[in-house]
Amino acid sequence: MSPNRQSSIVNRKSRIVILGAGESGVGTALLAKKKKFDVFVSDFGKIKDKYKQVLINNEIEWEEEGHSEEKILRADVVMKSPGIPDKAPIVRKLKENGIKIISEIEFASKYTKATIVGITGSNGKTTTASLTFEILKVGGLNVALGGNIGESFAELVSEAKYENFVLELSSFQLDGIESFSPHIAILTNLSPDHLDRYDYKYENYIASKFRVVMNQTSEDYFIYDADDEEIMKWLSENPIKSQLLPFSLKQELSRGAFKKNNEIVINIDNNKFSMPIPEIAIQGDHNVKNAMAATTVATLLKIRKQTIRQSLEGFPGVEHRLEKVLKINNVQYINDSKATNVNATFYALGSMQNPTIWIVGGVDKGNDYSELLPLVNEKVKAIICLGVDNQKIVEAFGNIVDTILETDSMAMAVKAAYKLAEKNNSVLLSPACASFDLFENYEDRGRQFKEAVRKL
């Protein structure tokens, strides 16, 4: 197949090969089957039973624990699951053969006319997506939440019952788009993350995030953090077509969202909304920004001000993000397993009010821990490493924290924290790393932490 042939997705008899049989892969398989594609699913690892059952029940051909090259290279189009890197041998082979490779987001967007809110960023995207979805749902819109969170976008599209989607989008998902364009795009912030997938070049990762706006028109909106230097630099060098709606804690804006007199103020075309910051359920400057972004979306989509206010007052936050688990002997245990990069942990440590025992570590993605040094010096009394290779953490903080322990299981880490903790301390799991060395994913890591705390 010529790599420039654009009709392959539209042609209903096309053969689609799906690499990876997780949430996005199986969701894509279901939608593709519904759209009369010849579907083949191939996973290099073992397929989870729940996904295998879906494939069997829907009579979709699949394989696991290896890729059959001959079957895969007969594809007209390939949907690559976001976790598979471009340097994987099968992906290289597909590129050599000029076979189109897209993401689930690209594929599914062809089959819906719904209004799409696409949310990306290094941190805060899950909270912003969850809060946006909550406000829109309470506001009476027919809306679903998907993408990098919750259900697969493709599976939701296959159900053909939603008029609006709120999608959390990772850089990996955006790497595989060609024509996907959300009506409203949000970029929460930028900080170095996943650099191992971007040749250790921050500019490659930034460019990947900005793909969220590349197909937008003057009818669309781009909501972004005007306090983020990297975002502002990129925008100054790369003009975009969409209408700009910034948010800021530092400056008053004529159009967008800003902080004034300890209130958030949203001003879009003389449609104003304001709310005292102390009344917002999720606290901290980063969460004020998340609330600003979500409220801007709700204002654009004409949700009633009273509904927005009630949603902001009642939103409990998301699991694994600064989630208070239990207080034992006056020690607060906090699950921030979703902090898979240094910037997320920066926010977490910054919010700590008491001397903190910090559980950190996992798969390092090219982390630079230097920005954490002042916070660690001020707030952290002991570090418990939780990873296969902790050398970088020990080297970074060994001179400023007296106690650094190495553990290789969550139960061991939590027990060590319990022994070190004194009255009015906090124990914070905020790994600043990916989880794949000891855990299935960050959710598994967070749940194991909560389970270990409850067993104390």
From TrEMBL:
It catalyses: UDP-N-acetyl-alpha-D-muramoyl-L-alanine + D-glutamate + ATP = UDP-N-acetyl-alpha-D-muramoyl-L-alanyl-D-glutamate + ADP + phosphate + H(+). Residues 320-433 form the Mur ligase C-terminal domain. GO terms for biological process: cell division; cell wall organization; peptidoglycan biosynthetic process; regulation of cell shape. It is found in: Cytoplasm. It is an enzyme of class 6 (ligase). Pfam families: Mur_ligase_C (PF02875), Mur_ligase_M (PF08245), MurD_N (PF21377). Signal peptide: none annotated. One of its GO terms (cellular component) is cytoplasm. The keyword Ribonucleoprotein does not apply. InterPro entries: Mur-like_cat_sf, Mur_ligase_C, Mur_ligase_C_dom_sf, Mur_ligase_cen, MurD. GO terms for molecular function: ATP binding; UDP-N-acetylmuramoylalanine-D-glutamate ligase activity. Residues 119-298 form the Mur ligase central domain. The keyword Metal-binding does not apply. Belongs to the MurCDEF family. This is UDP-N-acetylmuramoylalanine--D-glutamate ligase. It comes from Aequorivita ciconiae. The lineage of its organism: Bacteria, Pseudomonadati, Bacteroidota, Flavobacteriia, Flavobacteriales.
